[in-house]
Task: structure prediction
Amino acid sequence: MFIQQSDLFKDLEHDLIKQLMEISEKEDVPAGTVLFREGDPATYFYVMLKGNVKLTFKEGTYVAYLVSRPGEVFGWSSLFDRDAYSATAEALTETRLVRMPGDQAKALLEKHPESAMRFYRRLCKTLGHRLIKSYEAITSVSHAMTAESHGTGQILTMGPAH
Result:
């Protein structure tokens, strides 16, 4: 059961797992393939099997996250009431993943409320972890771009000249 590589699907009802697998398809994509772009309609939810996918926003200006471990998930916008993806997903290497239609997955989860609660709780934990990592990255960049001038009380900011 390839989707059970993800902690998200552990301990869910067997019938639900079977139905999710029936609507899923494995997909192999070459490096450089854009799976979806920021602002595209959020239609699919993905589970990484092998490879690396870079999630970026603001037309690739900022890297939001690197999906690189088997079982990691992305494209979660399709499982919530978001009309569009919040980032762009691009395969950095040859990548194998599972793709499932978000609306169908959501409908199946709604028919299994106990499993859905476990699934969404785990998804929230995953998203929370990514958010904390983003905060840490922003904070470390922010600290690297400022330095206290000891003795004068000034804070010097390094970066582009204005």
Summary: Residues 8 and 122 are 6 Å apart (CA to CA). Residues 113-144 form the longest helix (32 residues). The mean pLDDT is 83. The beta strands are 25-29, 34-36, 44-50, 53-57, 62-67, 73-74, 88-91, 95-101, 146-149, 154-157.
